[in-house]
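no rush on this but wanted to send it before i forget. theres a chain ive been looking at and ive put its sequence and its fold in token form underneath. i want to understand how the tokens follow from the sequence so walk me through it. thanks a lot i owe you, the record is right below:
>
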Amino acid sequence: MLYPVYVHLGDANHSHGAELPDFPGCFSAADELEDLPARIQEAVEIYCKNEHMTIPRPSPLHELRADNSYEGGIWLMADGRWPMADGRY
């Protein structure tokens, strides 16, 4: 499954920030865009670590794009095959 990730683009003085709407409070950042996928994976693994939770289904991108709180950045789709705290995918 692919999960939408909202990216706040950085510049020479600021990192690129990533937020995962389907995982409230789960954020990540990287200086280079190509490093974001690995940082996103780390963020989700930490978010889910020791939590016995059901992984949410991805939100439809078209619904998120209609949300005015996501403006000025870009959307990235992240591979949702993240290991869970107990090793399940």
Remarks:
- The domain at 2-79 is CATH 3.30.160.250 (Double Stranded RNA Binding Domain).
- The mean pLDDT is 89.
- Helices lie at 36-48, 61-65.
- The chain has one domain: 2-79.
